[in-house]
Queue: 2 jobs
Job 1
Amino acid sequence: MTNLVAYSPEYWTFDQRGENAADVVDAWSLAAINAQGATGSTLALGTWITEPSALLIYETQFRLPKRAANLISQAPDALGSSPDRHVNDALLNVEPDFLLRRTVPPPVARPKGNTDAVIAEWQGYVTRISDQTIEARLAGLTGEGVAGEAEEATIPRSEVTKADQSLLAVGALFRLCISYEKTPAGERRRYSTLVFRRLPAYRQQDLDDAHERTRARVDGLRLD
Amino acid sequence: MAFDWTKVGARPAPDEIEISVMGPGFGESIACHLGTNEWFIVDSCIESGQARPAVLNYLNAIGVDPATSVKVVVATHWDQDHVRGLGQVIRACKTADFCCAKAFVGDEFQYYIDELSIGPQDRGTKDIQQAFDAVWDSGRTCRQAVPGKVLLRRSLATGGVIELLSLSPSDKEYDLFLQEIALMRPAALEPMRVSVARSPNLASVVTTLVLDDDWAVLLGADMERRPEPDRGWSSVISESVRLSLKRSVVVKIPHHGSENAHDEGMWQQMLEPAPIAVIAPFSKGPAESRPPTATDIRRIRERTSQLLVTARHATSRPPARDPAVTRGLRDSDIKTRSLAKPLGLVRLRKARQASWTAELFGPAYKVA
Amino acid sequence: MTADSPVLESSKTEVVLVGRFAPDEVHPTKLVETNTLTEVEAKLATFNGLLKGQLVDFALDWATVQAVTQRLVFTSSQAPYVRIADLALRVVREALKAPAVTMLGINREFQFRFASSDARDAFGTRLAPPEAWGDWGKEVRTELTPATMEANRHGGLISIQMRQAIPDDREAGWIDLTVASAVVAGSKLGVLIRANDHYQCSDSADPPTLSKDGHEASRTERLLEALLTRFDKSVHRSDAIVNGLVKQ
């Protein structure tokens, strides 16, 4: 009984055989696959290791032929390392019931850089919100005549993206950037970006630790 | 242009009283000489582009050692423009007691400041934390300002006793302050944020400097007008009447001269007719509403013999920057205003039997 | 900036956390459960790699996230870059059940393109004068011409790396700058410059009374605190170093 799924960004495959497959299919993974859709073509097991695409493999109930098990246990587990070719052959020849104890992730393509150039950036926080505008205090971070300068700003509320509306509150921190982008025609185009920061939440442990520090200081203050 | 400290001259004579108000348009600080080289400081501010508090620069310029000469440092309230560099001032004034509203040394406010330090802090929160760290590190006494408390008393070599008294905050303001802090304290699972005070002038400490029956000076902090008798100027006036305090001939106008700090009772019951008045403006917010507005200036000028202001509103330009940045902001209809303002200083001095003399430095000016 | 100064073609920023992680917990659907990503973001995420228990690699419209058992990598090429620091913090603090962070890297990568072979050679020979390599180096120098570039016989500097060890602002670590020749925007006149701002903890800074788990937790927190408080400074410093290097 084997559940094997292989996919690349171009296509998905899903090949399910045997009984009780649903018992061992992880619901989380299945949901991800279903969301991406399936095209019905099949990848041979052996190709997954050398293809530059990633592979999702379910562990199922199975037994492993001894020779294959030995080879797999010797397989390197470092990210991006080339696997042993014999492992490929062994896996191609295994019986349908098999155990994969270790998987070898293929090298992952690194994301490309962006050609946009930031010419000014401020960190700001909201001091007041009205129907049409936001008042904010700005601290300049980068840019000539911007870095190190303190300013206040009136910003149209329409500059806040739909995704950030729920983050708009007095005291909320944001970044304001003025940048240039390169158009496909090679021209420079200026644009501004206003993005609210999604900082971690306060944790009770941190608040408790702060209270301990406070306690030490308050107890130590000489009051008159 | 940075303030030219070489122009402020020498320290006052041993028998001269001095009240020096300095303000960069965002922030204020007051240095007061009681006589015989004993000083107290109220609040702290830092000139734009500088690292050192203005009051320390001033004392240094006139040859006063803050480590030995300053006897009390008063923090009137916790608004950003009054606490910039306060930690540095406290550390420099090694023998000075620290004085603030009782509410600031209570558990609630102290917890609040430390809780906020978990995430990103604005400058004001850092300044307050550094101030209390300085007090704690040095083991000095923290004097809690309550109405009617004597913060400093000195017998003058020329005769007489000079006292610095706090006149606020009232118990009611204290309670309201704690209620506001309780609402602002961060809670677990809330995203980190910067603290923005809704009512930063709650628990503001108004002080008066009184020399026997000779004269008095009122330092109005940022106290505002309130209709309730146990709040705002109403409570300060009540305390003043209770103590039978002498009316002041000099006043540091409260809350930058704004209309909401104008209390008729203060003018009628706590000030001599036509006092000398000093304003440290507040150059934040939309230009048309920055206190003191032209209306504020007219209102105050009518009731004073002299009105002196530490800086003008519109005296600073934003630094030169890439025109593309300016255009980019304009494209998005984002309007920015620089908070960098030049520092001005108004200095009042008075020898025992003489009148008050006023001097102006930097962009400080006298209203005609 | 002179005529010989290169043009910046692209840049990106990375936050790398080394330690112990459970990649499955970084799956976008899991991140929605912990409010680390919005539902919209998770829905629009595109996967580059997915390997149960081993690898989660996906792209948002402004960042990519790669998680394996010993490493988390957050990369963005869109300002404001601080978003990846915020995302990394939220992932570790709110989404992962038992993470351990032992090292932090805040990295900047730049791809520059020179206008001419001579300009690129001037840059390379400034960083590593061929004459320092003796007679052989002098020979290499004579071959640094536009003609040899055209003929794919151009030698010279291939890569160079410089380290500043344990800068003052951390317990342990370094700032490494690597400069290497590269094909940039289809041009052979490219240079890749990578700044690795590396933070790790030192034994002497550990509170003495902690258990092993306590040490691990303390170090994780100290490194996350460094990420929260030093990210901007790190990026700006790297940019300043690189700008100073290319604009001489």
Note: The mean pLDDT of chain C is 90.
Job 2
Amino acid sequence: MANTEQKLVLALPKGRILDEVMPIVRAAGIDPEADFDNPKSRKLSFATNVANLEIIRVRSFDVATFVAYGAAHLGVAGLDVLMEFDNAEIYAPLDLGIGYCRMSVAEPQELSGEDDPATWSHVRVATKYPEITKKHFASRGVQAECIKLNGAMELAPVMGLCSRIVDLVSTGATLKANGLVEVETIAEITSRLAVNRTAMKTRPTEIGHWIKRFEEAIHAHAS
Amino acid sequence: MNDLPDKALLPIGMEDGLPPQAAEEARLAERLVYEFGTWGYGRVKPPLMEFEENLLFGNGAAMATQTFRVQDPLSQRMLALRPDMTLQVARIARSRLSRSPRPLRLAYAGQVARTKGSPLRPERQFGQVGAELIGAGGPAADVEVILMVAESLGRAGVRNVSIDLGLPTLAGAVTDGCDLDDAQRRRLRAALDHKDRAAVAAMSGVLGETAARALDVMLESVGPAREGLEKLAALDLGGDAAQQRVHLARVMDGVEAGAPDLSITLDPVETRGFEYHTGVTFAVFAQGVMGELGRGGRYSAGEGEEATGLTLFMDMVMQAAPKSEQPKTVFLPWGVTAAKARELRGEGWRTVSALEHTDDAQAEARRLNCGYVLVDGAIRQLD
């Protein structure tokens, strides 16, 4: 096959998911160079034991961007990020079964008692996920005005920015500590192996190989 | 002067083509239509605008949200600026050329405009070059169109073309008996488009075991086409779905026989962008180019006529095509006769003539990006 000398790039998300995904990556037979685990290293891309495979470490939303534009051929991204992007160029063929949480609508305890969602025509919502939020409310005929925040969503209702939030919830402890209750689940979230569409079409054997390796690694991991 | 940069601003997705790329794109488009011509496809030239209701009905409805509209000051009716030329060719086939013998082979090249670009291709105006084979229902027609696009791109210099075969109607046929509401169908379609096996598996409750298993095998068969078809072959499919699978396998056999070196992949679940297609479809890729160069497939041309066709997107083909060599340009200093200039052009030179006397012809030639200069009747190459 021509062009196989072009390196495959695997994009991994920084933060919480990284610790969970690395055992799977290693079980799939990919070992990054030592700098990858060195917190003092300023490197952003890393060679691996696989000659034509390189790892980049970026923010979780940027994994989707890199994969969508084909700058990375493979990536690990939460379903939340993939849903927010809803990009035709990103495939998500494999559920890695890590990073479990749910995307939920939450509101202050006192509001949830008196509120009747059937009467809404418009809601104001603080979220990191404006596209998912708009679609979710639009499907019930409600227009959602989204206030984009990048973190500490739980503060928004407390500080009077808006009365509802859409955010990821895992244990619910943060919500509770801020006097919020979950009123609705939008989606169950796990991390997926994301694949660039063109890469899958033009390098099917290599990409297929890695999907299989990851699949085997999760099964080994789970059992 | 200060407002010049402002005047240069173009709307998102619109751009000026400059030398030499503009000429290159035009040459490439002409070459492709010419190649289609060598396969017996006659060129048509539909107008830029048509009455909205004539263009955006039936198959055209899928393009409605992508269409710019203006009101016609003469007829007071709404006009659509064409978002796609396939629709127009199908209209020509069922109206003005309804009596022409079938199968009817038509080709076209032209610009289209769309209200929205995609993240990967923000262009809102781009060139389409395509061909339609109308009034032919069998797999041989699909094979012809696929072989033609691969061969034509190859002749135009595009290397490492690969074809992704699809069957967007198969999922519909497989889930025909399932009791899904609209929201569930949308969710299933999105899951299939993203090859999200987990999301499809999560719907197995509403899909039932047979359909869920069939869809999982279909997802599993995405990849190299021969292996994919073998996986599909193991599926126990009923009437319509089984027929579609046979058609797909025949297309695969034909393409493989006709172009043994062509890389072929299979994707029997993708529907995005194939909203009005009724059978085997395909997307064209080239290694090293992000995104598809074009796409095509089987559709209904109206009046019960089956058709298949293809469309190439020139902005994408340009990315895949090798840069062709610029013709040699010779600078003709002031005083060179018209006859001499004509003679040089006749020999294949591109001439740039001085419009007034310059002291240093060589410097002037360099300034105007000419690689050669005429000195005392002889052409000298500049270093």
Note: The interface with chain A takes residues 118-120, 159-160, 162, 164, 183, 190, 193-199, 202, 219, 222-224, 263, 265, 267, 272-273, 283, 285-292 of chain B (CB under 8 Å).
